[in-house]
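Morning F.,

Quick status update on the modeling queue. The single chain you submitted on Monday has been processed. Sequence for confirmation:
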Amino acid sequence: MRRAALYIDGFNFYYGVRNHFKAGEPQRGFSLSGLVWCDFRALIERHFLEPDTRLLLIRYFTAPVTEGVEARPDEHERYELWLRAASTIPGLKPLFGYYRTEAGALRQEKETDVNIAVEMLLDGVAGNFDTAYVLSGDTDQIPAVAAAAFRLKEQKRVRVLVPPLQTTESWQRHYLNYMQQLKQRFQFQQQELRQVDVKPLTEEILANSLLAYELPEAPCPPYWRLPEHYLAKMCRPEWRPDLARG
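Structure tokens below.
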């Protein structure tokens, strides 16, 4: 049985989904921001996991929205509710960076990129996975992805899942440029270069990977619940978040 691990850039996922679908809200008549109510284990197991593979590790990278850095009065409570919901996903472990704010500037999330790279490479060296899934469209992760896929003593398979708002083509282009530079620096042979599998997270995939709405620990709030007619159209019946699951 092969082992898999998932590394989630929480900030990149949330804003990629929310901002990508915001443009179509006037025509649609409702918001698709509720697609962020994601069951990350279901996302991998239903749509991407290979046969004879178990998803053992889920590492969720985020920065706490404390009252001192919140952009809107209720953001702290919204963040805490979401974190409780995400923590119901079996195997998920949150790892925290922080927000830095400067006078007259927007807040900046710090340490997430480094934390993802460090944890993935440490897990790779320790032999904790055969396949790593990296949920992020941030090209700053390319050196770590290339290291896991190519430069470790035991090379790993890496699959990158790109949230909406970013494109797989852009990510692949940056990756190939980086690998060509790596080849020149270390005089690798062309056949040694290993491509990384890059897949988009589509609306259909996200709609069929939602957490249940009636979680005892953190019921889904109204602003993240998608309309019933949308769920009936987009979701397989057994995966609908608004229906009881066996």
